Amino acid sequence: MRWTLKPKPDSKTVEALQKALQVDQSVATLLTLRGIDTYEEAKRFFRPSLDELHDPFLMKDMDKAVARIEAALLNNENILVFGDYDVDGTTSVALMSSYLKTKSDRIATYIPDRYDEGYGISYKGIDFAHDNEFSLIIALDCGVKANDKINYALEKGVDFIICDHHRPGKELPKAVAILDPKRDDCEYPFKELCGCGVGFKLIQALASKEGKTVEDLGEYLDLVATAIGADIVPIVGENRALAYFGLQIINTQPRPGIKAIIELVNKDILTITDVVFIVAPRINAAGRMKHGNYAVTLLTENDEELAKTYAHEINEFNLDRRETDRRITEEALVQIIENKEEDRLTTVVYHETWHKGVIGIVASRLIETHYRPTLVFTKSGDKLAASARSVKGFDVYNALEACAEYIEQFGGHKYAAGLTLHPENYEAFKQAFEDEVTKTIDRNLLKPEIKIDMQIDLQDITPKFHRIISQFAPFGPGNMTPIFMTKNLKDTGYGKCVGEDNKHLRLTASQGKEKIVSIGFNLGHKMDLISNKKSFDAVYSIDDNHWQGNVSLQLKLRDIKE
What we know:
Layout: E1 2-5, H1 11-21, H2 25-33, H3 39-46, H4 62-74, E2 78-83, H5 87-100, E3 107-110, H6 123-131, E4 134-140, H7 147-155, E5 159-163, E6 177-179, H8 195-208, H9 221-230, H10 237-252, H11 256-265, H12 272-290, H13 293-300, H14 304-338, E7 347-350, H15 359-369, E8 374-380, E9 383-389, H16 396-402, E10 409-412, E11 416-421, H17 426-440, E12 449-452, E13 454-455, H18 463-470, E14 484-491, E15 496-498, E16 504-511, E17 514-520, E18 536-547, E19 550-561
Parallel strand pairs: 1-12, 2-3, 2-4, 4-5, 5-6, 7-8, 13-14, 17-19
Antiparallel strand pairs: 8-9, 9-11, 10-11, 14-16, 14-18, 15-16, 16-17, 18-19
């Protein structure tokens, strides 16, 4: 692992901020590293406010979208709320449909089947709308590149409003309105909303026409925060405010479906990380293992007992998902060795029986062993479908674009994408992708990097210091958990490997008179670096250690070196 110490910020800026906020230099430094260098910016950072949210009508086509929905409600039209089967899609559908159902009883939802229809807007979904007399489809978290399907809908007399956050293609579809902050002609100030975030801006706009404010929409923020966490969008700007207040709803008055999931794991206070690792995988498991409808049903259910039943069902899907992705990951690692591909700069693997619902997770798992851009393929009808995942700093979407001649269809982001191709093009694509990555990737990116905010000593770690940096939350892209480095540590002599297969490392780090309990997940193999009171350097975050009703500080080790 590469350790990179972030450059020290300008000392005068740090000094001025330290003075203005009356905080330690280390806190002022951490804030400056996050681009916060005035009292006003710090105040907004520590005290997010829903007043900071931008006027939704700044988004291109918002006026058209609102006018079309108002007309549909006035004329008693049937409206179909359509969304993708992942967390962002299903939370978006839950949000939009539950809001519109307060205005009309002519609202229905549609989630495409991952296996039968694939990603995004489907011909089958449009046929369903036409056959059941839906004259308007509101598509969330998909649609910005579905030109042919939107044309097909128009022929059938079905209008579309698209709420998306993916990169548009060269030509936009002929929808009534396309809400997407990533449109070149959209001047909306914040570009990093997730699909559910764009949906929330639409209901904010609709509510504002009735004289309501964003505070009146608090009940929907648990869905928005869940989507922000799951979709790994930057937790800065609007996303930070939405995630901050969404977490408050999750921890005080979540909707019955989210409450039922939390009760399954018996957790008191959830952070955004808990949302990512506890709530999101269970919502996702529905679309992966069975059907995304299960997730929407859970998230829109108002009866607590029914919600518990649905949550248990979804939990079973998640257990099944975990076992499936573990098995496929093992098979893929064996395939890499059998094909003698350990030294390539990419991982591209395929088996026709692999479960399509977990190939994205498997791609992420493979990166833990072979750190490089990764694609996992399986059979999907008469084509092959893949999930792509990338390493930090490398744009896999651009690399796929360079191999477009072999691809039938693709879409996604810098770090995650999906594609389909014809089986006869698999080998040619695999080589083209390897060639493209070899040509364009900086070799340093093939080694995992840990970015360190600052070097400190153990004596700097006080309850007050930890209390202040805890208020930097919610953490995520653009505002990661502060990472520190301390040099010349020693174990007090009781360090040991713990956990299943002795995978983890537990020790008490000491420096001079200072001592602190430390845990290093998946660092068991580095036990020899701390034995016999050897001196070592550590990179870590600071965490609360809950033990037998007591709470103390501990280091969560990310890596150690001699």
